[in-house]
Amino acid sequence: MKNFQFKMQTLLYMSITCIVLISCSSDDDSLGPIADEPDPTVEPLVLDCSIITEAMVLEDRGSGIDYIWPCEVKVRAPLTIEPGVTIAFEQGGGLIIDDYDTRTGALIANGTTSKPIVFTGTNQTPGAWNRIYMDSGDINNILNHCIIEFAGGTNGSLPALSNVNGSKVEVKNTIIRKNKGDGVFVTTSANIDGWQANMIIENQGFPMQIAARKVKFLDGEQTTYADNGNNQIYVNSGSIYNRGYIEDEVDGPVHTWLNPGIPIFIEENIYVRQDRVNERPGHLKIMDGCNIIFAEDYGIQMIHNNTVLEVLGTQENPVNFSGLNGQGSWKGINITQSVSSLNKIENTIISDAGQSHWNWFNQNGGLSLGDQTSQSITLTLNNVQISNSGGCGIVERKIAANSSLNYTNLTFTNNIGNDICEEL
Question: What stretch of H or E contains 119?
C-alpha cells in the first residue's frame, strides 16, 4: 500500500528477488530471514484545493511527508486519514470540516501509537499554516494519536484546533504543540465529549480557550498542559455580555470541573442557573486541587432556586479562588437562593474577592448570600478561609428565617471589612 504508485515495478522486483533467494538458499541455508526493508522515502503528493464532496481516503505512502495541501480546503464528505500519514500545509492552508446544505463533512484521523497522523507545515515554524476548523456534528469525527503542530496563522490569531457551533469531535492521545497562538478553542455549543489523555504543549498562547459550560468535558490531569506562553486554561464563552452559563444540557445537570494541573483563568461571570428549556437546575461541582483565578470584577453567581454549588477541596488539596491582581481584584461568590442540601464549600480558600458588590447588596464581600428580597438558602461551609477581601468576609442580605447556614472552622484574614456583615 505504501508504494501504490509503483505497483508494476514492485511486482517485477518481487519476482527477481524470489529467483535470487531460491538460488542462494541452495548454497547456504544459514543466512536466516532477511530483515524488513524500511519504508521508502517518497516525493509528497500535492493535493487539489477543490471542496471535498465525496468520500476520500489518504493512505500512508512511505516515510517523510506524504501529502502537501497548499490551501485551506473545505471538507463536506468523510475524509479518512490512515495511520502513519503526514500532511504538510503551506501558508494559509488548513482543513475546514463543515456541514453545508445536505452534505456533512467528517474527519476520521485514527492513528496508532507507532503510527501517529501528523498535521504540520511545509515550513517548520509556528504559524506556518492556519488550523483544523471543526464545524461538523458528524458522530464519526475523531482525532486519535495525532500531532497538530506549527499552526496558528501568520499573526497567531487562529487556534490550531477550533471546535465551533454544533461540532462534535473526539480528541484523545493527541499532541497539539508549537503553534502560534492558542492550542485549542471550544465554543459554547461545541461538543468534545471523549477528550482524553492529550498533550497541549509549547504553544505561544493559552493551551486552550473553552466556554464555561464545556469545562466539564476536560479530563483533569490525564491531559498535560505545559510550556505554553500562558499556561492556564482560559475560560471565556465569547458572550458579548461576558457571561458563562452552567445549566442542564446533553449529559444532565452536573458540571464537574477537575483539576487540570494548571490554573483555570476565568474572564467572565459564571452563572449557575435553571435551564431555559427544561427548567432543570444547573449543578456546578469543583473538585479538589482546582486553582481558579478570576479577572477583574468577575465571579460566580447562583441565580435560581435549587441550583447547586459544590466546592469539594480536601485538606491535602484545597480549592483555591483568587484574583489576578491581589486584594479586592474580583467580585466573589454570590448565592441568591437555593435550598438544595448539596450546597457545600469545604477545604477552600477564597482570597482577593470583594472588588465590587453584587446587585442589591450595599457591601462587597468574598462570599455574598441573599438577594433583593428575603430568600431561603441552604449552605454548609467547612474549613474555609476567606482572606484579602476588598470588603467583608461574608455578607448576608435578607436571609429568610428558614435558611440553613452551617459554618464550621471558618478563618478570616486580612479582609478590609468585618468577618460577617449583615444587611437587612
Answer: strand 117-121
Condensed to tens digits (0 to 9), the pLDDT of residues 163-211 reads 999 999 999 999 999 999 999 999 999 999 999 999 999 999 999 999 9
| Digit-coded pLDDT (tens) for 144-170 | 999 999 999 999 999 999 999 999 999
For residue 9, what is the enclosing H or E element?
A: helix 7-27
- Torsion angle defined by CA atoms of residues 400, 403, 408 and 409, in that order, rounded to the nearest 10 degrees: -30
Q: How many residues does the chain have?
A: 424
Contacts with 399 (C-beta within 8 Å, 6 or more apart), sequence order: 369, 370, 374, 375, 377, 405
Residues 350 and 413: their CA atoms lie apart, in Å, by 11
- The CA-to-CA distance between both ends of the chain, in Å, stands at 78
**pLDDT mean across residues, the chain:** 91
Q: Beta-carbon neighbour count of residue 374 at 10 Å?
A: 15
The pLDDT value given to residue 20? 36
Buried b (16+ CB within 10 A) or exposed e, 269-295: bbbbbbbeeeeebbbbbbbbbbbbbbb
